[in-house]
Design brief:
CATH topology: Maf protein
Radius of gyration: 17 Å
GO molecular function: dTTP diphosphatase activity; UTP diphosphatase activity
Bound molecules: thymidine-5'-triphosphate
Function: Nucleoside triphosphate pyrophosphatase that hydrolyzes dTTP and UTP. May have a dual role in cell division arrest and in preventing the incorporation of modified nucleotides into cellular nucleic acids.
Enzyme class: hydrolase
Cofactor: a divalent metal cation
Helix content: 25-40%
Number of strands: 7
Keywords: Cytoplasm, Hydrolase, Nucleotide metabolism
Number of helices: 7
Length: 202
């Protein structure tokens, strides 16, 4: 069984659509000042999140991920407080930014330690002060990189996007499916059929 090393309900929801998973939470310090390159940062953080869990479970496939926003070269993570969130949303307003998710896949008994990343683009609408305040009042911004959730009320803030939607939500499932095929010969569609997951509710 695949282990997802994550506390993120979004990541759990995405991966569990395709295969049975078990969750092992990974608590690492995400305040990492070593990297000013967002790609290096998300790859390093995802590796760190996953490796501790992989060492405990060497015979399992372990997947971990980390998501940040790259706003003209500046890294935006999760907001510390409402003020911080307001500031991020006002800066993203009317502009394009990158959402970068780094992810790692491990199976240590086979000496597999794989890390990669996926970039998506999000174009924000011009937001009024009132719209920003109303969105903040939904409290959805907590725990979200860039202070919004494209899968939630944040969809109203967004003009358009380019690339993988699931990557923005935190797990680039299409790319990970390709990697699972390459690394282990596992097909997520075959997993869906094997586990008789129903497509009816989607
Ligand atoms: C941009 C964006 C981010 N997010 C979320 C995905 C991630 O959960 C979160 C970024 O924080 P992360 O640090 O990547 O992940 P996490 O702390 O939530 O979970 P874990 O480290 O245990 O795996 O932002 C959305 O849900 N929607 C969005 O539109």
């Amino acid at each position: 069984m695949i282990i997802l090393a994550s506390n993120s309900p979004r990541r759990q929801e995405i991966l569990s659509r395709f295969t049975d998973i078990s969750i092992v939470s990974s608590d690492i310090d995400e305040n990492n000042d070593y990297y000013d390159n967002p790609i290096q940062l998300v790859m390093a953080l995802s590796f760190e999140k996953g490796i501790a869990v992989a060492l405990e479970n060497p015979s399992n496939i372990v997947i971990s991920a980390d998501t940040v926003i790259d706003f003209n070269g500046e890294i935006l993570g999760k907001p510390q407080n409402r003020e911080d969130a307001k500031n991020m949303l006002q800066r993203l307003s009317g502009k394009k930014h990158k959402v970068i998710t780094g992810y790692s896949i491990f199976k240590l008994e086979k000496n597999i330690k794989y890390t990669d990343y996926v970039v998506s683009y999000v174009f924000f609408k011009d937001l009024t002060e009132e719209e920003v305040e109303d969105y903040l009042n939904t409290e959805e911004f907590w725990g979200k990189s860039g202070s919004y959730a494209i899968q939630g009320y944040g969809s109203l803030l967004i003009d358009s996007m380019q690339g993988s939607f699931e990557n923005i939500v935190g797990l680039p499932i299409s790319k990970i499916a390709d990697d699972l095929k390459k690394l282990f010969g596992i097909s997520l569609l075959k997993e869906v059929l094997k586990n008789e997951k129903s497509g009816d509710e989607l």
